[in-house]
From TrEMBL:
<feature type="domain" description="TadE-like">
    <location>
        <begin position="14"/>
        <end position="56"/>
    </location>
</feature>
<dbReference type="InterPro" id="IPR012495">
    <property type="entry name" value="TadE-like_dom"/>
</dbReference>
<dbReference type="Pfam" id="PF07811">
    <property type="entry name" value="TadE"/>
</dbReference>
<keyword id="KW-1133">Transmembrane helix</keyword>
<keyword id="KW-0812">Transmembrane</keyword>
<feature type="transmembrane region" description="Helical">
    <location>
        <begin position="20"/>
        <end position="42"/>
    </location>
</feature>
<protein>
    <submittedName>
        <fullName>Flp pilus assembly protein TadG</fullName>
    </submittedName>
</protein>
<keyword id="KW-0472">Membrane</keyword>
Length: 203
């Protein structure tokens, strides 16, 4: 019996298994961490590309803010025919999935309601790149930068800088599933100058 106890105490054949059991959690954590970094970069790239695609679509198709493309600042007394529209008369307009907010003295005359069809089409185009995007994640800003002129017969009086923003996105790492914790991604944005602001198709 004493010999058996001595042999059992000196037997080291299970040392490898014990060491492997100690190292395995660290190896798995490291492996999952590598996968999470790859997934994060993929998601990040999708979000950036979707934002760029969204603004390209927004400048070439129907304006999300109703009546902005057809409003005449000259005939309504907010600008002189042929002159750029001042930022005092129209500073800009910000649109979410539910409404648009206008800044400037002409805003009382501009129809600031949301073009729901145009906004939905924009979201659908962005979903082609990044399906996880919801309408609540997107905002569209129109900022007057002095381009265009009042009374333009061939297009919008203001050719604003159009900025599409993607916000409130989260990323769920595999390594944090046990803690039910996710990572909030930063906002993504892309901007281009409005083109014709008319139509439903864009390349």
């Amino acid at each position: 019996m004493k010999r058996l106890a001595f042999n059992l105490r000196g037997d080291r054949r299970g040392a490898t298994a014990a060491e492997f059991a100690l190292v395995l959690p660290l190896m798995l954590l490291f492996l999952l961490g590598i996968l999470d970094v790859g997934r994060l970069m993929w998601t990040w790239n999708q979000a950036e590309k979707a934002t760029q695609t969204g603004v390209r679509y927004a400048v070439a198709t129907n304006v999300v803010a109703n009546n902005l493309s057809g409003f005449s600042f000259a005939t309504t007394g907010y600008g002189t025919q042929g002159d750029p529209v001042s930022t005092t008369a129209f500073t800009g307009m910000a649109c979410t999935s539910t409404s648009c907010t206008c800044t400037g003295t002409a805003c009382n005359s501009i129809n600031t309601s949301l073009n729901n069809t145009a906004f939905t089409n924009l979201i659908n185009r962005m979903n082609d790149i990044f399906p996880q995007i919801a309408a609540a994640n997107v905002t569209v800003d129109y900022t007057n930068v002095g381009l265009g002129f009042a009374g333009d017969p061939n297009g919008p009086d203001v050719a604003p800088l159009v900025t599409v923003k993607l916000r409130n996105l989260t990323f769920q790492p595999i390594t944090l599933l046990l803690f039910n914790t996710s990572i909030t991604l930063p906002d993504f944005s892309a901007a281009l100058t409005l083109e014709d602001g008319n139509g439903t198709y864009s390349n």
